[in-house]
C-alpha cells in the first residue's frame, strides 16, 4: 500500500506537499491578533527582505511603517518583532506597561553567547538582577561624580587632551571617531578605575577598538540570531567572532585590572566605582548578585554603551559643522561672547548658550544615533493598543521614525537648530516626540553623563578650532547602521582659530 502511494508521488507533488505543510505550519504558529505587517516566508519570515535591503534597512522600516502603520509586526525565523513608531503608544508600552515590556531578548544567539561567556550585566539582564544592578550602578555613578563638579572637571581635562592631540596634528586631515572614542572611554575609565590612559597606550588603543568593533555590528537583525544555519556561513562566523570574542577579550582585560583592585581594596578609602562595588558586595545580604563576573559585565556595559554612543554623537556634530559652516560660525560667536578664550566652558554656561543647546538637540533628532534603541521583550502576554502580544515578543522603539515624522516635525529631514528656539532666541527643549535616550524604566542610565560630555567637548572644540573638509570634498551625511548609526569614516580638518 505504502509502496503504491510512494510510487505515485513525483517530485512536484512532494514539493507542493512540503510547501503547503510549511505555509500551514507558519500560519498555525503565528500568534493571532498581532499587529499587521509584511508577509514572510515559512521558516525564515521576513529575513530575506531585510537582507535584500542591505545598508538600507532603516529605509525598509520606514516603508513598512508607511504601509502598515505606527504598530507593525515582522517575523524573523521563529521570533516575532513588533515595531512602535508613535511616541504616545511607546509611552503606554515602555512607561505605563513598563513592567511587561522591559525585558530583554533571552533567546537570541549572540546575546546568549555573550551572557554564557562573560556573565550578565545591566543591559542584557532582566527581572530582579537587572533592577538591583541598575540601581547600584546608577547610585555608584552618582557617588563618583556624575552630575557633580568633580566629574565636570575630569571631562574638561579630557577635552583638553583632545585639543592637545589636534594641535599636534597641525591641521592635517583627521579621522575623528577613534580620537573621540578615546575621549569617551577615558571618561568612563576615570569613573570606574579611578584613572585615565595615555592616548598612545597600546592596551587602551586595543580596548577602544574592541569596544567599537563589538557595538558597531548590525546586531539587531543579524540572521545568526534567527536562523541557526547562518552561523556556519563566513558572514555569520565573522559577526559572532567580532562581537563575542571582543566581549571575551575585554572581560579578560578587566579581570586583570579588577584583581589588582581587589588586592589593594581598603574599605576606609573608596577610590572609584570598582571599590564601591566591592563594598556593596561585602555589605549586602545578596552578595551573589555582585559576584566578580557581574561586576565585570556591568563595567563592560558602561564601556560598551558609553563609548561608542558618545563618540558617534560627537563625530556627527563635527561632521555637521563641516557641512553647515554658518551654524559653526554662530556657535563660535556665542562661545566667544559668553565664555571668551580665557577659560573653558562649564555646565553653568548652558543656560547662556541656547543656540548650542539647540544644535545638540537637533543633532540627536535628525541623526538618530540609536535609531531602534535596544530591543525590549514582553516578559508575559501584553496589549499594545488593540493588539495582543505574546510573551517573548521582541518590541522595538522605532526612535528614528518618531524623530523624522513630518506630523511631529515639519521638514523633518532638514537640519534646523532654530526649531528649538523661541522668537527671542531662548532654548525650548522638546516635551514630546523626542527620545534619543529612550523612555521608561529601561531608558539610558548614562544620559546625564552623555549630555555633560557632549556639551563640554562641543564647547571646548568650537572655542579652539574650525572644522572643514579637505579642499574640494563634501561631507557625506549618510551613515551606516550597526547597533548605532554612525558616520562613514571620512577624514577632515580641525584648523586652529
Ligand atoms: C549620546 C550618548 C548616548 C545615547 C544616545 C544613548 C542611548 C541609549 C539608548 C537608546 C538606550 C536603550 C534604552 C532602552 O532599552 O529602551 C541606552 C541604554 C543604556 N545606556 Fe545609553 N546612550 C548614550 C550614552 C551612554 C553612556 C555615556 C552610558 C554610561 C556611562 C550609557 C549606558 C547605558 C546603559 C547601561 C544602558 C542599558 C540600560 C538598561 O538596560 O537598563 N549610555 N542608551
Automatic annotation (TrEMBL):
Gene3D superfamilies: Cytochrome P450
The keyword Oxidoreductase belongs to this UniProt entry's keyword annotation: yes
Cytoplasm found in the keyword field: no
Segments traversing the membrane: 7-28
One Pfam family, short name: p450
Residues reported to bind heme: 444
Cofactor: heme
Listed GO MF terms: heme binding; iron ion binding; monooxygenase activity; oxidoreductase activity, acting on paired donors, with incorporation or reduction of molecular oxygen
Name this protein carries in UniProt: Cytochrome P450
Protein's organism: Littorina saxatilis
Amino acid at each position: 500500500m505504502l509502496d503504491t502511494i510512494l510510487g505515485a508521488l513525483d517530485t512536484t507533488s512532494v514539493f507542493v506537499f512540503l510547501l503547503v505543510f510549511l505555509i500551514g505550519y507558519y500560519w498555525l504558529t503565528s500568534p493571532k491578533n498581532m499587529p499587521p505587517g509584511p508577509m514572510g516566508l515559512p521558516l525564515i519570515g521576513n529575513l530575506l527582505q531585510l537582507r535584500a535591503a542591505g545598508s538600507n534597512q532603516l529605509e525598509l522600516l520606514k516603508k513598512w511603517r508607511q504601509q502598515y502603520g505606527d504598530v507593525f509586526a515582522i517575523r524573523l525565523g521563529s521570533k516575532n518583532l513588533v515595531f512602535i513608531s508613535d511616541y504616545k503608544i511607546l509611552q503606554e508600552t515602555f512607561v505605563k506597561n513598563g513592567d511587561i515590556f522591559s525585558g530583554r531578548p533571552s533567546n537570541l544567539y549572540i546575546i546568549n553567547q555573550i551572557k554564557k561567556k562573560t556573565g550578565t550585566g545591566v543591559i542584557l539582564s532582566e527581572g530582579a538582577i537587572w533592577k538591583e544592578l541598575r540601581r547600584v550602578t546608577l547610585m555608584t555613578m552618582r557617588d563618583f561624580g556624575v552630575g557633580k563638579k568633580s566629574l565636570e572637571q575630569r571631562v574638561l581635562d579630557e577635552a583638553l587632551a583632545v585639543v592637545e592631540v589636534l594641535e599636534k596634528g597641525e591641521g592635517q586631515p583627521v579621522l575623528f571617531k577613534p580620537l573621540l572614542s578615546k575621549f569617551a572611554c577615558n571618561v568612563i575609565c576615570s569613573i570606574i578605575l579611578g584613572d585615565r590612559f595615555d592616548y598612545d597606550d597600546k592596551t587602551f588603543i586595543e580596548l577602544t577598538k574592541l569596544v567599537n568593533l563589538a557595538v558597531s555590528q548590525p546586531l539587531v537583525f543579524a540572521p545568526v540570531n534567527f536562523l541557526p544555519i547562518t552561523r556556519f556561513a563566513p558572514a555569520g562566523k565573522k559577526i559572532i567572532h567580532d562581537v563575542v570574542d571582543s566581549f571575551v577579550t575585554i572581560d579578560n582585560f578587566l579581570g586583570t585590572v579588577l584583581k589588582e583592585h581587589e588586592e589593594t581594596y581598603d574599605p576606609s578609602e573608596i577610590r572609584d566605582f570598582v571599590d564601591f562595588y566591592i563594598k556593596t558586595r561585602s555589605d549586602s545580604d545578596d552578595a551573589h548578585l555582585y559576584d566578580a563576573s557581574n561586576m565585570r559585565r556591568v563595567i563592560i556595559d558602561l564601556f560598551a554603551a558609553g563609548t561608542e554612543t558618545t563618540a558617534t554623537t560627537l563625530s556627527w556634530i563635527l561632521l555637521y559643522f563641516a557641512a553647515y559652516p554658518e551654524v559653526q560660525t554662530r556657535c563660535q560667536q556665542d562661545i566667544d561672547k559668553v565664555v571668551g578664550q580665557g577659560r573653558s566652558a562649564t555646565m553653568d554656561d548652558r543656560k547662556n548658550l541656547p543656540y548650542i543647546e539647540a544644535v545638540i538637540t537637533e543633532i540627536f533628532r535628525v541623526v538618530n544615533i540609536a535609531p531602534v534603541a535596544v530591543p525590549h521583550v514582553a516578559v508575559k502576554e501584553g496589549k499594545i493598543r488593540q493588539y495582543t502580544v505574546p510573551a517573548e515578543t521582541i518590541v522595538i522603539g522605532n526612535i528614528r521614525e518618531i524623530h523624522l515624522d513630518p506630523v511631529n516635525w515639519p521638514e523633518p529631514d532638514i537640519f534646523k537648530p532654530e526649531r528649538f528656539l523661541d522668537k527671542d532666541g531662548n532654548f525650548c527643549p522638546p516635551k514630546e516626540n523626542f527620545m534619543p535616550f529612550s523612555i521608561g524604566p529601561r531608558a539610558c542610565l548614562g544620559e546625564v553623563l552623555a549630555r555633560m560630555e557632549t556639551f563640554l567637548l562641543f564647547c571646548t572644540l568650537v572655542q579652539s578650532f574650525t572644522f572643514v573638509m579637505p579642499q574640494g570634498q563634501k561631507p557625506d551625511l549618510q551613515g551606516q547602521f550597526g547597533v548605532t548609526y554612525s558616520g562613514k569614516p571620512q577624514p577632515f580638518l580641525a584648523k586652529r582659530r
